[in-house]
Every structure is written in C-alpha cells, then in structure tokens.
Amino acid sequence: MFYFCSMEESNRQKKIASVLQNDLANVLQNMLREAGQLNIIISVSKVTVTTDLSISKVYVSVFPADKADAIVIELNKLKPNIKHQIAQLTKNQLRKMPDLSFYNDDSLEYIEKIDKAVKGEDNPLKNPDLLPKRKKS
User: Fold this and answer.
1) What is the CATH number of domain 11-129?
2) Which residues of 15-42 are buried (b: 16+ CB within 10 A; e: fewer)?
3) How do residues 22-40 score in pLDDT, each as one tens digit?
4) Contact yes or no for 68/78 (Cβ under 8 A)
5) What distance in Å separates the CA atoms of residue 53 and residue 4, rounded to the nearest whole number?
6) What whole-number distance in Å separates Cα of residue 130 and Cα of residue 103?
7) Contact between residue 124 and residue 132 where contact means Cβ atoms under 8 Å apart
8) Per residue in 89-120, pLDDT tens?
9) Who wins on pLDDT, 128 or 9?
10) What pLDDT is attached to residue 88?
11) Element at 30 (helix H, strand E)
C-alpha cells in the first residue's frame, strides 16, 4: 500500500509558522520603532514553512500601502539581522532557523478596492447607465 503526500501543511509546519509569525511581528515593530518610523504599521499576515523546514515565506501587510514595496525590499535586505534576532528568540523551540523571504500581502488593499467599487459611484446596480446598452435586433 502506498501513501501519497498531500500538499497540506503538517502540524509541525503550522506550529513553526505560528511561532515565527508571533516573533516576527514583535521584531519588525521594534525595528520600526528604533528606526523612528512611527507612522508605519507592519503586521505579519501569514507565514508558511516548506516541508523540509528550511525556507519560510513571510507575508506582511504595510500601512500606509504606498510604502509597502519599499518596506518589503528593505526587509529582504535586512534578512540576516532579522533571522539572527528570531533565532535568539526561538532557540529553545527550533533546532534550525529557516531562511526568511518577505512578500507584500496586498489582500487588504484588494478588498478595499472591491469595497470602494461596490459602494462608490461606479456601482452599476445604482447607476445602470454605466452598463453598455443592448441593441434589440
């Protein structure tokens, strides 16, 4: 009998991702505070870990959204420093610290655009003239 691996995360992956998510949120907020960037908010929206636990993808939401790309680039430059800080915090929980890769999570921005489209003047339900007229043949 053969068992095939599914793409679902193992409990170990989920546990490590959860630990990383909490610690990363604290470390990133402290880094912003130390840099004097009090007008920027970073939240770690999701962390995934590969099955071999060697790589971790970190999705961050940045407010204001127009600074997100610059912040993600900066976080990827500071990876060694961030990884070291997280390794110190998780040394009792993780044997090997996974490599970190930071990505912009723009899902909130996407939801906001949809929300504005539905509530705004460009709503075809409230203004049917926006829809192209069908010609009767």
Assistant:
1) 3.30.300.20
2) ebbebbbebbbebbeebbeeeeeeeeeb
3) 999 999 999 988 888 778 8
4) no
5) 19
6) 36
7) no
8) 988 888 889 999 999 998 877 777 777 777 76
9) 9
10) 93
11) helix 11-34
What is the DSSP secondary structure assignment for residue 41, as one 8-state letter? E
Q: If we measure between CA atoms, which residue out of 95, 88, 103 comes closest to residue 26?
A: 88
- Asked if residue 80 lies in contact with residue 116, where contact means CB atoms within 8 angstroms, the answer is no
Per-residue tokens: 80: 């060694």
Q: Secondary structure of the chain: what % helix, strand, coil (to 5)?
A: 45, 20, 35
What does the domain layout of the chain look like in residue ranges?
A: 11-129
- Structure tokens that stand for 29 in this block: 């907020």
Amino acid in position 74 = E
